[in-house]
């Protein structure tokens, strides 16, 4: 579902003959066995795809506090250069890091998040929804029938 970029970095580290990170176990034959989270379920493939799109757009839409990002990347690089690579900051990206690290606080790039986000600019919906939890299918049917008789537009969720 997610984590493909981390897996690629681990494969590159393994191919380069580096030792596995602390959280990655090595099998007897030397194969790395990174931890895998299982148990994801979604209502549909479209639901899963929507999650992937949203999860990968978070940083795009949110922007960065450049000073804090530079500080974090500097700390990561000082602690472990491989971790910095796992965070997608490799040799080619060092110029980006150097640009973000303020040598002089007055020279720091501005934070790009300056105003209200899209959520604050959206018009309120014309239709509102309510989710009601029922103890049984029979109770759900009874409630749906009652609300329909009262003139509400209803649909069942399972």
UniProtKB/TrEMBL annotation:
Name by which UniProt lists this protein: Uncharacterized protein
Protein's organism: Nonomuraea deserti
Source organism superkingdom: Bacteria
Positions of the UniProt region annotated as Disordered: 95-122
């Amino acid at each position: 579902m997610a984590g493909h970029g981390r897996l690629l970095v681990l494969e590159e580290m393994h191919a380069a003959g580096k030792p596995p990170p602390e959280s990655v176990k090595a099998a007897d034959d030397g194969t790395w066995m990174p931890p895998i989270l299982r148990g994801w379920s979604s209502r549909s493939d479209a639901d899963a795809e929507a999650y992937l799109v949203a999860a990968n757009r978070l940083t795009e839409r949110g922007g960065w506090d450049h000073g804090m990002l530079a500080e974090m990347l500097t700390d990561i690089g000082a602690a472990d250069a491989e971790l910095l690579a796992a965070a997608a900051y490799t040799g080619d990206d060092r110029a980006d890091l150097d640009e973000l690290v303020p040598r002089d606080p007055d020279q720091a790039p501005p934070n790009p998040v300056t105003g209200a986000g899209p959520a604050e600019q959206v018009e309120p919906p014309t239709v509102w929804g309510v989710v009601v939890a029922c103890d049984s299918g029979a109770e759900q049917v009874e409630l749906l029938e009652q609300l329909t008789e009262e003139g509400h537009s209803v649909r069942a969720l399972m």
